[in-house]
Amino acid sequence: TMLRMQHARALLTHSDLPIALVGERIGYNDASAFSRRFNVYFGQPPKAFAKQ
Q1: Which of 13, 14, 35 is nearest to 23 (CA)?
Q2: Are the CB atoms for 24 and 32 separated by under 8 Å?
Q3: Proportion of the chain above pLDDT 70, given as a percent
Q4: What domains, with CATH codes, occur in the chain?
Q5: Across all residues in the chain, what is the average pLDDT?
Q6: DSSP letter for each residue of the chain
Q7: Average pLDDT, stretch 11-21?
């Protein structure tokens, strides 16, 4: 799962993909589940991370 989250972080950093699509690309069909898991790993939701 950590590799998937690292890939998601890279996608959020280097692309303009919507968060739901990033989640789908790493295997999450549910954007909410992806956001919760991302928050657990990185301490912030993907939306906040993408704004940085």
Answers
A1: 35
A2: no
A3: 100
A4: 2-51 (1.10.10.60)
A5: 96
A6: -HHHHHHHHHHHHH----HHHHHHHTT-S-HHHHHHHHHHHHSS-HHHHHH-
A7: 96
